[in-house]
Amino acid sequence: MSDDVRIHGMGEESPSIKKKRVEHIIELEDRDYADHWRSCCGCEIDRRAALFFSQMAISIILIGLCIVKLGMGGMSCEAETVYVSMLTSIVSYWLPAPRA
Fold first, then answer.
1. Number of H helices, E strands in the chain
2. Domain map (residue ranges) of the chain
3. How far is it, in rounded angstroms, from Cα 76 to Cα 70?
4. DSSP run (H or E) holding 46
5. Cβ neighbourhood burial of 66 (10 Å; 0-12, 13-18, 19+)
6. Model pLDDT, residue 10
7. What is the DSSP secondary-structure string of 33-44?
8. How far apart are CA 57 and CA 36, in angstroms?
9. Which of 2, 15, 35, 55 has its CA 20 to 30 A from that of 80?
């Protein structure tokens, strides 16, 4: 045991230091658990990557749908407005905000 955790040379950790050590270990485990997902098959994936790629896939599918529908033509103005607004919403979601 190192000298910095000894209490006045007695050789034991104080209860508060033991408690802090345990809390720190639990906090590290919680942080690691929160950043990773485990599937029922046993594979592990980063939570942030899974969310990002899911959002990206849904956005690409919707952008493709909007482009195809707008490219087909022959729609009423109201129908075109729906696809243009959906396309604009998706693009504005992914574009970064301008810096002031």
1. 3, 2
2. 3-38, 48-94
3. 11
4. strand 44-46
5. buried
6. 57
7. HHHEEE-TTS-E
8. 20
9. 55
The three-state secondary structure class of 45 is: strand
The Cα 82–Cα 75 span in angstroms is 11
Mean pLDDT across the stretch 80-91? 92
In contact, 62 and 55? CB cutoff 8 Å = no
Q: In DSSP terms, which residues pair with 37 in a beta bridge?
A: 45
What's the pLDDT band for 2 if we cut at 50, 70, 90?
Answer: low
Please tell me which residue, 23 or 89, carries the higher pLDDT value: 89
Give the pLDDT confidence score for residue 37 in this predicted structure.
75
Residue 32: what pLDDT? 64
